[in-house]
Amino acid sequence: MSLHPLALESVPGPTAQVAHAAFPKGNLYLTIRDELGTVYRDEHFATLFPVRGQPGLPPWRLAVVTVLQFVENLSDRQAAEAVRARIDWKYLLGLDLTDPGFDYSVLSEFRARLLEGEAERVLLDILLTKLQELGLFKARGRQRTDSTHVLAAVRKLNRLERVGETLRAALNSLAVVAPEWLQAQAPEAWYERYGRRVENYQFPKTETARQDLAKVIGADGQHLLKALDAASDHPWLREVPAVQMLRRVWEEQYIEQAGSLRWRTPEEMPPPAELISSPYDPGARYSTKQSMEWVGYKVHLTETCDPETPHLIVNVETTPASTPDDPMVAVVHASLAKRNRLPTEHLVDKGYTDAQMLIDSQRDYQVRITGPVAEDPSWQARAGTGFDKSHFHVDWDRRVVTCPAGHQSISWLKNSYPKNGVVWEARFARQDCTPCPFRVQCTHAKVEPRIIGLQTREQHEVLQAARHRQTTEEFRAEYAARAGIESTHEQAIRRCGLRQSRYIGLAKTHLQQVITATALNLIRFGEWWAGTPLALTRISRFAQLNPFVQAA
């Protein structure tokens, strides 16, 4: 299909007449067409289509339908049916009443073009530019970011299921590309063992029997890999993705000893962040958070939170589930900087606020991070009666630390075994610490004196300042706005299906989440334009009777 941009036309008269009769008070899609126009133009997608060939459907219409299907959480089939049947969709798309629509498969082809052209952000950025022209996006305002988990479109597999299903996936792929070769290699037992989906309820229940089955599956996989390595007349079989996946999973789950494979013990397993969780989605990872476990991804949504404008999602980042939140603020800021959408103040939770991140954000982007930092983990700080690090005065120029009793450190040395960012160690004299009346509040060591571990000067000072600031009422008042990002997650999950990935792979999952953000922005524009106020936090009937809250 080629692209031949056409001039945008107005809504056909009969379509407009029926739409306004059906919706005399208007609705979201009529408002979008009347106030934002078509949002997209064919020229926005010119790089995704060739200039020669049979003309395809106008890509601006495909872009609009792609976003609308996430506004209503529709499948491709349902979205194509809505184009044929819905008068409000026809109005927004500028279609005749008699227009038959298109085949649903066109939508997946359009998404594939977006991925191939690395244009995942185009739908979101064009809409944000439109809204910015209307004055609905405040440059260098306030923004907030938080992450939530996304479930991969695959089953959660235990180790035994994983190896069995990985071998089955490799056999199915080889059955398509080299059926005769595979038929010559496969023993009869394989058809019974891997002919249908591998599930835990089929396995033996005792641990010894399960270990024996793991050895059998391992030997079968090793036999297949050796046969592939020996297939000199079919060297390309080793490059089949499912075969490469089989080789990687076998390296993770087994150890070769004396020519045979041994099932790894839990202590011998690679870190969970490196493990393949499913052969059908290599990018999905297993992760935990508090009592929650899942296989999939994490999405980091960043939205504006200025009180006088609608709260618009301006950035979406997608990572495997095992990726920690700590480095993501830098990724978000770099993305926002490229598109001139950086805030002045950025509200985040504790997962994003290590000391270096506070420094880098202010230095590189002039963005002030507002969020709680980790408390001092020492027993002195937890007890509340001991002398934690904040009770010591650090003279960085002289490289001397003074304790609450007035004694000065006698050495300042580079930390030989850096841990938790500690760069320096300041040691006090034993003759000062041993007779000190405050020793029990300072150290639990029986003989050794107190040692103070320090980060770099910049990290130490910014961390101590942040810990002090987060105890103030001013900080609590500023930080209260961060909680609003939780409602954005909830809206994206309930209305657009954010929690469950529709597609396989990190790239497609990220595209889904970017389109979801675009859909939410359209919804929020429509509600803001209609004057719909933000919903208040729900309070139970009983809680409303609390006389103490009413009195306050």
Structure characterization notes:
The chain is α+β, with helices and mostly antiparallel strands and 552 residues long. The protein folds into 4 domains: 13-117, no CATH class; 120-154 and 289-367 and 502-552, Nucleotidyltransferase, domain 5; 159-274, no CATH class; 379-469, no CATH class. 44% of the residues lie in helices and 12% in strands. It has 23 helices and 13 strands. The strands form 4 sheets. Strands 1, 4, 5, 6, 7 and 8 form a 6-stranded mixed beta sheet that branches. It has a 3-stranded antiparallel beta sheet with strand order 11-12-13, with no helix packed on it. A two-stranded antiparallel sheet has the order 2-3. Strand 2 (254-257) and strand 3 form a beta hairpin. Helix 7 packs parallel to helix 21 (506-529) and helix 8 crosses helix 9. The model has no long low-confidence stretch (mean pLDDT 92).
Mean pLDDT comes to: 92
The gross shape turns out to be flat
Q: How large, in whole angstroms, is the Cα Rg? A: 30 Å
Uncertain segments: none
Distance between the termini: 66 Å
The CATH architecture classification of the largest domain is: 2-Layer Sandwich
In helices, the fraction of residues equals 40-55%
- Total strand segments: 13
CATH fold node name of the largest domain: Nucleotidyltransferase, domain 5
Supply the number of structural domains. 4
Which structural class should the secondary elements be placed in?
Answer: alpha+beta
CATH class call of the largest domain: Alpha Beta
Largest sheet: 6 strands, mixed
Query: How many alpha or pi helices?
Result: 23
Strand percentage lies at 5-15%
